[in-house]
Write a structure and sequence with these properties.
The structure is a single chain. With 439 residues, the chain is α/β, with parallel strands linked by helices. It has 2 domains: 4-22 and 237-438, Enolpyruvate transferase domain (UDP-n-acetylglucosamine1-carboxyvinyl-transferase, Chain), CATH 3.65.10; 24-229, Enolpyruvate transferase domain (UDP-n-acetylglucosamine1-carboxyvinyl-transferase, Chain), CATH 3.65.10.10. 29% of the residues lie in helices and 28% in strands. It is built from 12 helices and 23 strands. It binds shikimate-3-phosphate.
């Protein structure tokens, strides 16, 4: 049983320094890159969550040896053509869209059929968005209802490079095609709406044959077939998406101050910082460093006296795509009406998050107007909840759970939040850090 949590009291103000777990996107990418490297890669501070463990299980099934100790993860890569597995192998990606989509790109040159399954939430998500571009390289797909998991893919030994236009701002689609381009002869070109660029940065760090031109709204990426990848020792920085919950808790808890250590502040990930600054929050980056092409820093947050509503520029959407649920909580306390638009992608996540965002706010007594891709939030700077709120049946979306916990600790009321185990997906340490802040 995954259990529920009861919260009856707001958190008291605090002045603390914390460290959150490793970045999920970088952890999964490191596992996948290391699995096709020539030799042993060692990872430190790898996120130990179900999504990342599913990636480790997947490469083990492909014949790659992985050793996990308390402190490190060692992957014995067997080279770019080193996967060994039987026809019709089944990989369970559990809740992870990143794993399920990216691994398809890596398997595109294999003529053995691969089956991808996932949990209830992942099985509702759109896989046509990767099946279509990967079919253009020469892979053959079968998808449930032409769109969903389970799917099976049979790659090809006669791949054709492809010219791909990624216009959703999806880093998963872009990365799946980059991986496929690393397998296909000739030149694969991608014009991609801006999205997180960890895959590209790892390719560059590994000196793989990739070029990237950053245009105003798009990136132009060119990839060639790779012959060899060297092993990659990597110390994973902390995850800004996990940090987001504590950033918002601090913003919403008057008189509080927080430092979060060594967080990945890749410019394609810091939409939440830009949005909160526009709403009147003081946030600083300190001890900035560049590590293997990624920017990392300590984040310092001070709870502001006042919060302003925002008409959020759509260009900030992809850099904050996993953070909107908690950002909506800030809008709930801001002065005036906040407006977030062009967010249809939010309903494509682990749960339909635009709908769930509105649902949580409505339960809190906040008025919203939503349509299929936007939300207006009527903020109330004096919001104080006195009633009972139950949160359940949300497809175990980890971010719905964590957002509800932050709302309960910030606004009061009595909250019964189901499916506590959902945090295992991305942030098993979440409730321990909450307890640290309560001390
Ligand atoms: C991710 C990309 C985003 C994000 C997800 C992780 C990644 O998804 O929401 O949590 O690691 O590439 P999309 O590519 O579907 O936008």
């Amino acid at each position: 049983m995954s259990g529920s949590i009861l919260i009856k009291k707001k958190i008291s103000r605090y002045n603390k320094s914390i460290t959150v777990s490793g970045d999920k996107s970088i952890s999964i990418r490191w596992v996948l890159f290391s699995s096709i490297a020539d030799g042993i890669s060692e990872g430190q501070n790898l996120l130990r969550s179900e999504d990342v463990l599913a990636a480790i299980d997947a490469i083990r099934k492909l014949g790659i040896k992985v050793q996990l100790t308390k402190k490190s993860c060692t992957i014995h890569g067997k080279g770019i053509n080193g996967y060994r597995y039987k026809n019709n192998l089944k990989i369970n990606a559990k809740n992870s869209g990143t794993l399920a989509r990216l691994i398809l790109g890596l398997l595109i040159n294999s003529t053995k059929t691969i089956n991808i399954v996932g949990d209830k939430s992942l099985s509702k998500r759109d896989f046509k968005r990767v099946a279509v571009p990967l079919s253009n390289f020469g892979a053959k797909f079968k998808l449930k209802k032409n769109k969903n998991l389970p799917l099976s893919m049979r790659g090809s030994s006669d791949l054709k490079p492809y010219k791909y236009f990624e216009n959703r701002g999806s880093a998963q689609c872009k990365s799946a095609v980059i991986f496929a381009g690393m397998r296909a002869p000739g030149l694969t070109t991608i014009k991609a709406k801006k999205s997180r660029n960890h895959t590209e940065l790892l390719c560059k760090y590994l000196k793989l044959p990739i070029t990237i031109k950053n245009k105003k709204n798009y990136d132009e990426i060119k990839v060639r077939k790779i012959e060899k990848i060297k092993p990659l020792n990597y110390k994973i920085p902390s995850d800004i998406s996990s940090s987001a919950f504590f950033i918002v808790l601090t913003v919403l808890t008057p008189g509080s101050k927080l430092t979060i250590k060594n967080v990945n502040i890749n410019p394609s990930r810091i939409g939440i910082i830009k949005i909160l600054k526009k709403m009147g929050v003081k946030i600083k980056f300190e001890n900035k460093k560049i590590y293997k092409g990624e920017k990392n820093a300590d984040i310092k947050i001070l709870s502001p006296k006042n919060l302003n509503g925002i008409n959020c520029p759509s260009k900030l959407n992809s850099g904050a795509i996993d953070e909107f649920l908690v950002i909506f909580l800030v809008a709930a306390k801001a002065k005036g009406v906040s407006y977030f638009k062009n967010l249809s992608e939010l309903n494509e996540k682990e749960s339909p998050r635009l709908k769930w965002g509105a649902k949580i706010l409505n339960k809190m007594g906040i008025k919203t107007i939503i349509n299929k891709d936007s939300i207006k939030i009527y903020g109330n700077p004096n919001l104080n909840i006195n009633k009972k709120i139950v949160i359940k049946n949300y497809l175990k979306d980890h971010r719905v759970f964590m957002t509800s916990v932050i709302a309960a600790l910030s606004f009061g009321g009595t909250w019964n939040i189901h499916d506590k185990n959902s945090i295992q997906t991305s942030f098993p340490n979440f409730l321990n850090i909450i307890n640290e802040l309560k001390k």
